[in-house]
Amino acid sequence: MLIYMLATAMTVAMLIATVFGLHQEAQRVRVKANTKRFEGFGPRKPYRHY
């Protein structure tokens, strides 16, 4: 019974840590997005039909 309680406590702790980490990353991305405009994924090549 004790092992199940410890496993449950660790699972809850890891879920809380994951949510906190995602929140921190979202704040960092939001700040970065406000300071620099997204330029895309590299140089844009004109579209041509062949």
Could you explain the architecture of this structure?
The longest helix is centred in the middle third of the chain and has 34 residues, at 2-35. The chain is 68% helix and 0% strand. The model has no long low-confidence stretch (mean pLDDT 83). With 50 residues, it is mainly alpha-helical.
Provide the descriptors you would attach to this structure in a database record:
mainly alpha; 50 residues
Protein topology:
Blueprint: H1 2-35
Short description:
The chain is mostly helical.
* Largest sheet descriptor: none
Shape: elongated
Overall mean confidence score, pLDDT: 83
Order of helices and strands: H
